[in-house]
Amino acid sequence: MTTIDIQLSATRKEKPKEDQLAFGRNFTDHMFIMDYSTEKGWYDPRIVPYAPISLDPSTMVFHYGQTVFEGLKAYRTKDDQILLFRPEKNMERMNLSNERICIPHIDGEIVIEGLKKLIQVDRDWVPTAEGTSLYIRPFVIPTEPFLGVAPATQYRFMIIMSPVGSYYKEGIQPVRIFVENEYVRAVAGGTGTAKTGGNYAASLKAQEEATKRGYTQVLWLDGVEKKYVEEVGSMNVFFKIKGEVVTPQLNGSILEGITRNSILQLLRHWDIPVSERRISMDEIREAYDKGELEEAFGTGTAAVISPIGEFLYEEKQILINEGKTGELSKKLYDTLTGIQNGTLKDEFGWTVTVENEKVLSK
Amino acid sequence: MTTIDIQLSATRKEKPKEDQLAFGRNFTDHMFIMDYSTEKGWYDPRIVPYAPISLDPSTMVFHYGQTVFEGLKAYRTKDDQILLFRPEKNMERMNLSNERICIPHIDGEIVIEGLKKLIQVDRDWVPTAEGTSLYIRPFVIPTEPFLGVAPATQYRFMIIMSPVGSYYKEGIQPVRIFVENEYVRAVAGGTGTAKTGGNYAASLKAQEEATKRGYTQVLWLDGVEKKYVEEVGSMNVFFKIKGEVVTPQLNGSILEGITRNSILQLLRHWDIPVSERRISMDEIREAYDKGELEEAFGTGTAAVISPIGEFLYEEKQILINEGKTGELSKKLYDTLTGIQNGTLKDEFGWTVTVENEKVLSK
Ligand SMILES: Cc1ncc(COP(=O)(O)O)c(C=O)c1O
Ligand SMILES: Cc1ncc(COP(=O)(O)O)c(C=O)c1O
Known about the structure:
Chains A, B: It is an enzyme of class 2 (transferase). Chain A is an alpha+beta fold.
């Protein structure tokens, strides 16, 4: 077994107040690092004080976008345990992204071991207030100084962590979504299934324009016919039509969300009819016209469930459940967050406990 | 007029030997930097010693791919002048890329002024041997430490420079190209027209597979029907069919190469029939079968003209001009490189002279 070196910080930062936590602005006292070279493979896994990194301006990460990242959360339970939600799924997806973007495979077990140690070291940073959590960001960047378009021969894998507030400070609120039919996020054969920087850079322009028009997020359509539903910003999307729950199938251009996967399992467990298939905006509009579109919601690590109150498609409004949170959306939200924060029984074996161990430098 | 601060390096690096110049591995003694914040706009343009930059691990450049870059060259003429080739076109394209990727507009004039000063400072780095040049890499990265998918509010623009050897050390050589019909580089509505990192990350996998099969580069097809020619690796592509030169039109998914633009002007100037239009691989195969496919070549800053000797399309070989460099390809290469290095008269006003001035710290 690889040993993880640990170097504890001599000083500790002041923690932000739990009712003032902003997303992704404050980081804990330590970080996990592991380096890669062609000769050594992944080497030197270590926990060190959180600090800037120094890179030559020619470093490939500044030029050719060969990056991959993940996002997951740690939750503090009422009896002061720390739970992770399906971290092995994030490792699996990270390696799918790596594969697409030509980054060498990373041993998920070492990373999860390192992550657990990192959380043990920074345990006090996991917030306690309801709805709060510790957001965990594993990521890989190429560190080779070289201006050539080719897979790098040196990489750095890191994990940084940030305490985040409740997504729904004033209770769960449906969002308004703009259906995008000019810009395209991804197409089969492209990088849409990978969690890589370029997909997010590509999304900014459409998001900016939707925001200007008063919409929270963009719903992407397929890049070929611009008819079929793909996903929403950083979420997968579900529709409840005449009692059946429909979500776009994994088609080679959307990201497979871990929340999506969990929601599908929950629905099937409850014997609610579910279908993963191609679904067009025309079909959704038709269902709406017939009064058969009952609910719609996005799923993702940040919001867990984000009920959708309205779509704007081709300048026409599609109002869902009178703009209010649907019953199923609410039930899914309560169940999933309950499992995540330990108030509901975890029948699926999704949560992983981080033991409460004191960690010393070594 | 903005003044550019100049801080000269106390030491100078040893220069690599001119017959051993590798692409993108050695950098000059100085670099140009300019920063951006929402409050100040672009500020503090300066020339400083070439040195690593230090960034917080949460800096957006490591996560969301909001980067843009450019590539151009400076050439040393026989009578020791330094020439730039159409630098204002690179600035124009950089701002088109910026626009797509939500990076604030950059004043091209300040950048060109800064670039000229930078070259004056590092003038000795422009190599003298035939076919060599100084490769110039302007680029923009988001420098805000924030884990949110949104346009950054802080950026850094930089120019670094690298002396590069002749692309064709053993004379101009046709390349073998693999026509890719699984992976997709870009689609209209995506980011294909922008010089942004994600496009290059997306290309690595296909390039890797083509290399394994013995092909130098990949020819991309459109992402919708996978029938129409887009471009090659880091080059635009041209075909000579029955005396007419055909190149894919600017269709919203290919990059507008500055070499492409110059080649089109040259061809029109020479009264050679030229057409910018959609062209399918079927049409190319048909022309080949009829013996009408006379030449094919890629165009880009690195190679200028790269004759294509062979395509592999759907496992069938398309051999061009018996795998030898075509007459027109050679003439275009000689003319363009002649203008660039000052041995031919520049009738188009493409070259810009960098005055030979001594620059002091200020
Ligand atoms: C593009 C995209 N789709 C979907 C998701 C949802 O994935 P998950 O449920 O794993 O958070 C995310 C967020 O990670 C995302 O970035
Ligand atoms: C994708 C792509 N296409 C085409 C080109 C050719 O452009 P230029 O002639 O400006 O070098 C490049 C290189 O810059 C490129 O990266």
